[in-house]
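To whoever is on call:

I kicked off a structure prediction for a single chain this morning and the downstream step that reads the tokens threw a length-mismatch warning. I double-checked the sequence; it's 112 residues and nothing unusual in it as far as I can see. Pasting both halves so you can look.
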Amino acid sequence: MIYYTEPEGQALRDAFDARVLHWPKVTTRRMFGCPAYLADGKLFAFLVNDGVVITQVRKHDRQILAEAFVTAPFKAGEREIDRWLQVTLDNPERLPRVMHFVEKSYDTVLAN
């Protein structure tokens, strides 16, 4: 299954990179064929064609995100990863509304 292609995801990737690549200890690599973002070697988010997958989202924050966006647990093939929340962004301009939650995920992986 293809989760990310550069032609479809490029605008979102450019916007995301501009926001997170300057954060301390952030590195990138490919995971699931997608641009993945790690803090001190621990995954906190990755991009898919139509949004961002945030790996560390508290229950309360899941509810807040679900009120503003289409969300679902990330599916890796047939396997659903409940704790990873996929947030659908129909337009990269909506990215700023989810960055607070991406930053919380970043902070969580650094603290653990």
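Update from on-call: the warning came from a stale cache, not from the record. Cleared it. Sanity check on the structure: The chain has one domain: 6-111.
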